[in-house]
Structure formats: structure tokens, C-alpha cells
């Protein structure tokens, strides 16, 4: 099996489109839209697995920057993982995933995220359950107590990209995982909304400044919120009132939101459907770089070693010495040192991404450590943080 990037061979690209349509039951124009709008416009790439120069399977490494502990870091978003049915016993996906790790490491993409068809399958290659989202469904009458806050609501589009970016970044930069959307991705988002009959409305104040926005669909007697962003509670209430004015068109409202969102606290009737749903898996691509970038704030002195087990990324499969002195961080590899802490790349990814605390991992026997004091110290330094992913891939 030969693994290589799919560049500009039109015949192979058409086979890639065929493959995506077959495996994901997509209309051809949807796949070609994404291919035309994104491929070659940033550092996203398509990997193909070939046998006798015939495409057997593929995956996409989407080029993203994401927010992580207040930083802006590179992330490879794995999507479009597909194989033709006749090639599914040839371990094409396994080879594609292993090669993707090398490529992402070369591209300094220190994290990778993916939406799994099977958690157990991708766990074998180092990805782990690392994000959730809260799904909420209620009767639209449950929003009847929200009143207009005096703002103007009107459609928004590509001409509002810079204003939307400001509101978006203020709202999402406090989470781990949301993408820092480029102008290109904003442009594609608005165009994709138009093509998929997703409405885009903004909240404007008296100075005609965008203060929030909502992307939504009206389908099957439901108001389905795709994304809702606001800069204050007052603006959020305006958006909830905006949803309520659709009561003649729909009976139900569906939201997706971060797990720590407290919308239910400002409703008058909490009889609703609310579910925490597992979402994407996370993987650290380069442990050393992640440790060097981690904001060990207000740490005057810290010295520990951590051993990582990583079967498919040899550069991670070692012991790392971490020394922090007045916020200055030094990380070195030392495979001869006995680690103070040991864990798999999967657990390390969960902890450093803020999905679980190191104390929780220790109590679940996912981390090995003989020094409970070190666990308690690191627990204060590496806090849990709500993860939330805004862009699918």
C-alpha cells in the first residue's frame, strides 16, 4: 500500500469525491463545494492510500488553529476517513492514520481532533474521548418570558465577517478546542449556510455594532440552533426572544452548547430534554511541544518527570523531564530516568486538554504515580477546562 498526498490529479480527485459520496451518503455537489472552497486554499491536505495506483481509501487533515488555555495553537482536524468496501480488509485506514501523525508533527500541529464513528477504533491509534456538548430540546413556549431588549435583528453575511469574528473570538476564546476561524473559513461558513438553508441573523445596537448572532434552520416543525454567540446576557435574551417570535412556525427548539452552559437556569420551566453527548476525540501530536507551551502560571519551582506510552508516535514514547522556574519552562527527553508519573498518550491528551483533571485520572487508575503530593500539586497547576468544538470536519 502506498500512502501519498492527493495533489491536483483531476482523475484521482474525482475518485476521492466518489469515495466521500459513497461512504457518507453525500450529494456530489456538497463534496465538490468543500473541495473547491478549501482544498489548496490553506494547509489542509488529502491523504490517499493507493494499490496499483488505484485509490483505496483517504482522509483529510484539516488545518486549524484552536484556542487552548488562552493560547492559539495549531491543530490537525482529521475528517473524511473513508475506504472503498473492497479495500476494507487491507488496513488502509490504519496506514493513513499512522502517516497522518508524521505529517501533523512535521506541520507543528500539536493537537489533533476527530469525530469518531467508533471510539474504540481510534483509541488504538492514540486519540481519546476529549470533548462533549450539551444538547437541549424544549417547547418554544418555554421562551415566552423573554422580551425584546431593544436591539435590532437583521440578516448578516460575508460583509459582516470582521464584526462576527470579534464577537466569536470574545465568546469562544475561554474554551479549549474552538477554532480561531480564518477569513477563509468565515467566508465558507456563510456560503455553506446559504447552500444548506441555514439562516444567519445578527443583533445590532443603536450604533449599528454587531453584538451577537445566530445560525439556525427551520425544519420539521423545529427551530434548530446551529450556533448562537453573544457578548452579554442582555444580548442572549434578545436572541432567545428572537427565537420565540417564530412560535407560529415551529413548536420545538433545539440547542447545542458547551457542557457548562446554564441556559436552563434562566428558563421558567425546567421540564425539558437535556443530554450531555460525547463528541470529538483528542490526541496530542507532540508531547514535548505541548509541555513547553503549557502556561504553568504562578509556578515558582516545579521539577517532575512523566513517561508517555505512545505506540504510533515514537517521538512521544519516552520520559520527559519538566522543570519550571518562575514561569520559565524547560522540557528534555531522558529515557533513562524513572518517571514520577506514567500514562498513555490517550490519558495525557485528556489531562493536558483539560477534559479530566490529573487527580481524576489518578483516582481512576489511568495514571501511575507513587507521590500523591505531586498529583495534588499538578492538580492545582493543570486545571480542568470546558472543551467545546464549533466547527465540524
From TrEMBL:
Superkingdom per UniProt: Bacteria
Source organism per UniProt: Vallitalea longa
Signal peptide extent: none
GO terms for MF: aminoglycoside N-acetyltransferase activity
BP GO terms, sorted: aminoglycoside antibiotic catabolic process
InterPro entries assigned to the protein according to its UniProt record, in alphabetical order: Acetyltransf_17, Acetyltransferase_Eis, Acyl_CoA_acyltransferase, Eis_dom, SCP2_sterol-bd_dom_sf
Name the UniProt record assigns to this protein: GNAT family acetyltransferase
Residue span(s) of domain Eis-like acetyltransferase: 177-284
Residues in Enhanced intracellular survival protein domain copies: 287-388
Amino acid at each position: 500500500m502506498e500512502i501519498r498526498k492527493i495533489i491536483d490529479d483531476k482523475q484521482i480527485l474525482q475518485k476521492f469525491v466518489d469515495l466521500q459520496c459513497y461512504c457518507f451518503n453525500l450529494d456530489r455537489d456538497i463534496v465538490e463545494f468543500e473541495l473547491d472552497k478549501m482544498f489548496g486554499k490553506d494547509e489542509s491536505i488529502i491523504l490517499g492510500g493507493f494499490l496499483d495506483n488505484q485509490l483505496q481509501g483517504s482522509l483529510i487533515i484539516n488545518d486549524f488553529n484552536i484556542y487552548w488555555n488562552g493560547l492559539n495553537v495549531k491543530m490537525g482536524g482529521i475528517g473524511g476517513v473513508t475506504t472503498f468496501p473492497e479495500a476494507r480488509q487491507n488496513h488502509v485506514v490504519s496506514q493513513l492514520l499512522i502517516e497522518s501523525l508524521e505529517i501533523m508533527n512535521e506541520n507543528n500541529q500539536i493537537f489533533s481532533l476527530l469525530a469518531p464513528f467508533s471510539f474504540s477504533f481510534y483509541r488504538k491509534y492514540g486519540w481519546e474521548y476529549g470533548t462533549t456538548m450539551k444538547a437541549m430540546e424544549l417547547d418554544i413556549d418555554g421562551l415566552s418570558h423573554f422580551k425584546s431588549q431593544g436591539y435590532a435583528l437583521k440578516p448578516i453575511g460575508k460583509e459582516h465577517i470582521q464584526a462576527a469574528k470579534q464577537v466569536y473570538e470574545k465568546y469562544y476564546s475561554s474554551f479549549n478546542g474552538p477554532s480561531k476561524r480564518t477569513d477563509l473559513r468565515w467566508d465558507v461558513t456563510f456560503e455553506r449556510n446559504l447552500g444548506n438553508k441555514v439562516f444567519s441573523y445578527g443583533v445590532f445596537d443603536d450604533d449599528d455594532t454587531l453584538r451577537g448572532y445566530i445560525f439556525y434552520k427551520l425544519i420539521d416543525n423545529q427551530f434548530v440552533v446551529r450556533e448562537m454567540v453573544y457578548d452579554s446576557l442582555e444580548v442572549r435574551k434578545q436572541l432567545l426572544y428572537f427565537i420565540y417570535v417564530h412560535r407560529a412556525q415551529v413548536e420545538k427548539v433545539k440547542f447545542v452548547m458547551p457542557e457548562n452552559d446554564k441556559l436552563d437556569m434562566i428558563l421558567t420551566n425546567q421540564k425539558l430534554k437535556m443530554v450531555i453527548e460525547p463528541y470529538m476525540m483528542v490526541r496530542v501530536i507532540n508531547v514535548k511541544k505541548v509541555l513547553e507551551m503549557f502556561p504553568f502560571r504562578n509556578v515558582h519551582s516545579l521539577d517532575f518527570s512523566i513517561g508517555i506510552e505512545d505506540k504510533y508516535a515514537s517521538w512521544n514514547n519516552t520520559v520527559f523531564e519538566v522543570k519550571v522556574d518562575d514561569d520559565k519552562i524547560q522540557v528534555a527527553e531522558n529515557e533513562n530516568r524513572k518517571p514520577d508519573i506514567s500514562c498513555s498518550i490517550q490519558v495525557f491528551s485528556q489531562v493536558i486538554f483539560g477534559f479530566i483533571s490529573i487527580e481524576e485520572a489518578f483516582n481512576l487508575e489511568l495514571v501511575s504515580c507513587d507521590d500523591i503530593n505531586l498529583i495534588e500539586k499538578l492538580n492545582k497547576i493543570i486545571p480542568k477546562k470546558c472543551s467545546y468544538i464549533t466547527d465540524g470536519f
